[in-house]
Each structure stands twice: as structure tokens, then as C-alpha cells.
Amino acid sequence: MSSAIPPVAWSACLMLAALAPVAHGATRVATPVSPPAAPANAPERDPEALAALDRMGAALRALKQFSLTSDASTEIVLEDGQKVELDGVVTYKVRAPNQLFLELRSDRQLRQLFYDGKALSLYSPRLKYYAQVDGLTSTLGELVDDAAARYGIDMPLADMFLWGTDKAPKTAIRGALHIGGGTVDGEAIEQYAFKQDGVDWQLWVSKATALPKKLVITSLDDPALPQYRAHLRWDTRSAVPATAFQFTPPADAARIKLVPVAVVVTDAGQEN
């Protein structure tokens, strides 16, 4: 048996694996895939629903800075098929093109992620552990992809950094419906429903700002059909200071190693 990863590195993996339990299923509804040939009974693709995604993408890409708070809930399916709902609050502070702060808070955990355009830092305030990667130059869209692919970090609501770019092609959407109007938080919205391979998702979009106000994603890969729900509150007016993206380790915090997914997989294979 061999092990190229020290014990503290495994601790980092565990800390990062716990980074996004309230985010499971909350990302990658726009993952590019090659669409299959449309059958005769293919779902409807309403042009208005697809146009709403274009408007939303343009509105998101136009934001130079913002703060976002999302009340999120995730349904976890236990081995016996019972579903358990876990709630949490997701907080973002963002300055385009390359600065981000993310906090995931629930009764069971508190995790923070900082990116100042050069260094990616992850911190667990309650456990007093942190991990860092220096020498980065990624934009936010690149960071979302790199963090997921390299370190297995799936950021909640990550698609908001991809909509309006070529990384979120509408060809992945097999069905699109305009459900109708309504209100969320007293704000006029239009509701839409979409189908993709593996997921159905609903979107409530502000008529005034074209920003998403509510999101529900249903996973079709599990017979229990677990859902992720997010209620979004935007602040696009208040200035976000540069200090929001800077991480200084507390004196009593211990640094642990951030291990790439490929290293973990390779090492696991060596042990088997």
C-alpha cells in the first residue's frame, strides 16, 4: 500500500467536499452537451423562454459588481429512499472580472472562499483550517470551471458566471416553456421551465432587471427526484470593497494542502 498524500491533505479534501452540500445540483444546468436527435414528440422549445435566457445572460454579464444572498435548500436522498432537506444561506460578493467572495452557512457548517484575482483561499472559521492556491490569473468564468475540474469544488449558482457566454449554449436545452407572470418579493417576474438531460429546472426572472429571482432544479438521475431550491436577493447598487476578497489567515488557523482531484484519484487507485 502506498500513499502520496499526507494526512493533512486528506483533511483538506474532506473540508472541500463539505464546501457545497447546499449547492448539490445547483450548478451546471447549462453544461454544454451534444444534443441528441429530436424525436417526433420532442418537448416544446418556446422562443420566448429561450429569449429570456438571452436577456438574463446579458444582464448578468453587464454587472460590474454585486452582492447576492440566496436562501437555499437541498434534498438529500438516504439509502432507504427517504429524502432529507438541508437548508443554508449562500452569500456572494463579486467584482468583475476576477474577484469573488463566497460564504456557505448552515446550522452544521460554515465555509468561505476568497479569490482576489491571484490567490484562491478556502477557510473553515469553525474548524480553523484554511487552504490556498497562489499564482492564479483566472476570470470568474474560468475559476468556476477550474475549481470544479481541478479540485472538485462546485460553487453554488455557478451558472450565473457562464450565462451569456459560449460556455452556456442553449443547444443543451431540450425543452423550454414560458409559464406566465407573477411576483417574487413584491417584484414582477416571468416564470419559465426548462428540460435538459438529467435535470428539469424552473426559473423566475425579474421583469425590471432580467436577473433571476428564484430557481428550482429537479434531478432526474435519482428515482426520488431530489430538488434544489434557491431564493435570490440581489444588491447591484452598493459598492463592494476590495477587502471583501482578501484573506488573511487568523493566527490560530492551520494551513492544510489543497489536493487536485487527479492526485486523489491516482492515489486511491494505487491503494486498491
From TrEMBL:
Leader peptide range in chain numbering: 1-25
Domain of life per record: Bacteria
InterPro entries per record: DUF2092 (IPR019207), LolA/LolB/LppX (IPR029046)
SUPFAM superfamilies, per the entry: Prokaryotic lipoproteins and lipoprotein localization factors (SSF89392)
Keywords assigned by UniProt, alphabetized: Protein transport, Signal, Transport
Quaternary state and interactors: Monomer.
Protein known as: DUF2092 domain-containing protein
Organism: Stenotrophomonas bentonitica
Organism placement in taxonomy: Bacteria, Pseudomonadati, Pseudomonadota, Gammaproteobacteria, Lysobacterales
